[in-house]
Amino acid sequence: MENSSETDYHQVSCIDETLGEQERSTVDYSGVGPVGKDSVITVTGTDKSNDFFEEETFEANKSGEQVSLETGESGETIDPYGYLNRGDFSSEIYKVELVNLPKRFGIAQLRKKLVFMGLSPCKIKSVDCGHFAFVTFRSEADRQKAFEVLQGHVWKNRPIRVKMAAANADPLMLKRKHKVNVSDQPVTKQLKTEEDADKLTITERLNNTVTPLWNIPYEDQLKTKYSTIREFIKRLGRQIEKNNETAKTWLSEQRLLNEGLCCKLHPIKASPVLNGYRNKCEFTVGLSPEGKDNTVGFRLGSYKDGVISVIEPDDCINIPQSMKHVAKLLQTYLQNETARKAFNPIDRQGFWKEVTVRTTASKGVLVIITFHPQNLSQEEIDEEKKHLKIYFESLFCQGEDTVSSLYFQVESDRKEKYEDGICDHLRGKKFIEEDLLEMKFRISPLAFFQVNSSAAEILYSTLADWCKITQNTVLLDICCGTGTIGLTMAKKVKKVIGIELSHQAVDDAKFNAQANGVENAEFICGKAEDLMPSLMRQIEGQEVVAVVDPPRAGLHSDVIRVIRKSSFVNHLIYVSCKPTAAIQNITDFTRQSSKRVSGIPFRLVQAVPIDLFPHTEHCELVLMFERENQSS
Q1: Any catalytic annotation for residue 384?
Q2: pLDDT tens digit sequence for 597-617
Q3: Rg (alpha carbons) of the chain, rounded to whole number
């Protein structure tokens, strides 16, 4: 499953999202207890995570962090920690450092342990080869509870120590401070790279950001992607062998058969459509490089790299003309019909944040306009929605009927973004429909759907070929979205059971089943880790094939444990849009049986990359697993 945070080319502008790429050195407050919001402490230290910082004295701000201020070229104060004093939510305010952790531990393992102990972690970041990790929480009460519960707790024979941790700096402000600090110094290698980038045209810089492989022949793109996947499978084999010594002999045999790989790797499958293939994009609203406000398009880089300029998507080769046209319509409205400015990620002022556009082959166009309310009253927000609705109705009367569905989304905090039911329907149809493998699928505003419909048909056809289904098969579709995978195979199996977290997607899946005359499909809303235990007891003893198409972060470890223990599930298909993030899942399916993961292990039998994202470095990877006692 694709996650919009990366392949939708939407650079999240919220500080809390971009922080965590690198952890600042922390100040040990363990001797004075938790630091209150009004504490002022003078400390001396060096931030080793950013080599441009000098040894200097700082004064702690309200969250206990070190502060060093500079003045920018235009005279504005550069405060890398100013975001902490704006009153906006950021879990960075409530952060701790866990010290003396076991030699080997996984993020998922640590998160589960914290939840089991009654804690509610927000973000967790560990450092390679370190015995420590940083954990953030959503409130001071949650952080205080972590101190009480974890201080001295013994995990794998190691007593955990808990310390206050300083918040990360705003990456954009750090970038600006860096430029100030080096202004009188020789040009560094980093700045030389920036100068080279400045020599490129705006079109070249935009395409390098959105479609990094845009100027490489497609055949060469496929070769590069295949080579990357091949190296991944080779490393994966070593990881599987490390975690399952009993599989060494079998793995050695497979390497002899598959040119050194732990499984058969099929040639990459190309996308039928190379240009204009995306059916969903999230455009940022912001300032153009020339200073034109309410420009709708893409950033030339990421926020953490110090880039906030927005460029219109006219020259993006992966976006269809209909989508570019809609972006232009919205930009015209924002620049001429409203006095409200774009949301500024630096001072977090302004209103217009994003424009999400979804299109289908049947000419359906769904638009979601995301708006930050600031301190506006509900009446003022309703007035803005009214003007927006009138604008599109007037376009419709003039013969402009491109937008078939219009939504308005109020988003004051990024944590609300993916909650169901927050999109306010303004006009037109409430859904759009896509044709796929001779079936019709309804798509709600926030429901997941593959962004390349033509290549998705190749993906789903491959899954049907690999699932080894019969009329006696119960197909378990985990993370099913709008039901596409299960429904395209429903007529060939006894029953389809889909599990999905999104209420909107489950409603779509149920509608899609009825609309396509499928009567043997059941779709359940909820967390897979909560639903799976009882569900597996209900279908125990039947012929079950599992297909999992999880989001980028992968499956919850509890889901893997349930599947491993369910001996009647002998065949498993795993779809990954980011294979490197799936390594932990894959090794858990294949690792040797233990108290933590019981049941007969799976073996990776074959894999195939499918290119759903031409001109980018991404592709889907389909992995087929069979039980050790089933594979030959």
Answers
A1: no
A2: 889 999 999 999 999 999 999
A3: 26
